[in-house]
Design goal:
It is built from 17 helices and 8 strands. The protein has about 375 residues and is α/β, with parallel strands linked by helices. It has one domain: TIM Barrel, CATH 3.20.20.70. It has an 8-stranded parallel beta barrel with strand order 1-2-3-4-5-6-7-8, surrounded by 8 helices. It is globular, with a radius of gyration of 20 Å. The N and C termini lie far apart (about 50 Å). The model has no long low-confidence stretch (mean pLDDT about 95).
Length: about 375
């Protein structure tokens, strides 16, 4: 069978999900074509995506008008529109979800980003969205904030699928794993089934390099030993972090201790995979991170680029020693990775809140 470049990725055990959703691509059959012809195996959404989909097109005008006539407020209009899209997309992926025994075929919807630091609010909203969507193959997106961790545990214990989003650092990743596994154990302790509960941990990649690269550029300009280190590290921090995260994933979810629980592993998902730096390859964050039991969520532009000139190969476990070296050398060029990660998380939440608020203004 002749596979295109996107389809070949699946032969190495990785699933490609689309980081995009819009009503017309679902009803026109375009999504079905992407599933059949390109092997797309899931879909993610966020406030930025819905902002563009709703504010920059007229395809939702009739829905908006009908909901206004029903005296719905702005938030209710947004939720109705977004939930309908997610439900329709989930229905398109349902056969794949069934065929893969709940390991693929998911669509994500995010809780209100204003709740990023509100544990109870996140839990309540996630419960409500899960009930409203009423599909087994949806994931509720919860940010990997300190306040998000207990929410993740609670939701998993209730059998609610969770996409842990805005994840940047390895320390926080270990905390996310703990929240997931503890939630699974809580549910087992209640005598309830766990085999079909799904969760993914979404590492945001390009934003890491976008923030660090300018710092490294300063050392490159100075020359000397630090410039030498900066040359080797430049553009490698996100990929190195991802490779180490995968090493942690394997140690945890391939262990006998976890396997005995009878639950699905919490897959790693590579997000924010469109490079911010125009000097980098447009498929940089796909090519280097292909490996078993992982997911890469990509934009339509990146999808088309990879279909055109991707060269899939299992690279995720290549040069793992180099990845550890890169992370260990960051202090040598004055980079405090913990401080960087805190800033990335804070900025990510602000960005999602801004997109959400812009969408509310556009609907108003």
């Amino acid at each position: 069978m002749n596979y295109n470049n996107l389809q070949k990725i699946k032969t190495f055990g990785q699933s490609i999900w689309l980081d995009y959703i819009r009503r017309d691509m679902i009803v026109s059959g375009e999504l079905r074509r992407l599933i059949n012809d390109d092997g797309i195996r899931g879909m993610t959404s966020n406030p930025s995506i819905f902002e563009k989909a709703i504010a920059e097109s007229d395809i939702y005008d009739r829905d908006i008008r009908d909901l206004v006539l029903k005296k719905k407020d702005i938030k209710e209009i947004y939720e109705t529109i977004s939930q309908r899209d997610v439900q329709k997309a989930a229905d398109e992926f349902r056969s794949l979800y069934n065929k893969t025994n709940c390991t693929d075929g998911y669509v994500s919807l995010e809780v209100n980003p204003h709740l990023a630091h509100d544990t109870k609010g996140t839990i309540d909203e996630a419960r409500r969205l899960w009930a409203k969507l009423n599909r087994p193959n949806v994931l509720i997106k919860v940010p990997a904030t300190t306040e998000g961790l207990p929410a993740i545990r609670q939701l998993i214990s209730e059998g609610i699928n969770v996409n842990v989003t805005l994840l940047f650092g390895l320390t926080r990743y270990r905390q996310v794993i703990k929240a997931y596994i503890t939630g699974i154990k809580d549910r087992i302790g209640q005598g309830k089934p766990v085999k079909n509960i799904a969760s993914v941990a979404s590492f945001f990649l390009s934003r890491i390099d976008a923030l660090i690269d300018p710092m490294e550029a300063e050392f490159l300009a100075l020359g000397g030993e630090k410039a030498h280190f900066a040359t080797k590290i430049r553009g490698q921090v996100a990929i190195s972090s991802a490779k180490i995260a995968y090493n942690i994933y394997k140690e945890t979810f391939e262990s006998e201790q976890f396997i005995k629980l009878g639950a699905l592993p919490q897959k790693l998902l590579w997000a924010s995979t469109r490079p911010k730096n125009p000097e980098y390859s447009d498929i940089k964050y796909i090519e280097a991170l292909i490996g078993p039991n992982t997911i890469n969520t990509i934009t339509l532009e990146t999808l088309e680029a990879y279909r055109d000139h991707g060269e899939p190969a299992p690279q995720l476990e290549v040069d793992i020693k180099q990845a550890f070296w890169v992370m260990s050398e960051l202090p040598e060029v004055g980079i405090n990775i913990k401080k960087i990660i805190r800033k990335l998380e804070k900025d990510g939440i602000i960005k999602f809140i801004k997109s959400f608020d812009n969408l509310m203004e556009a609907l108003a």
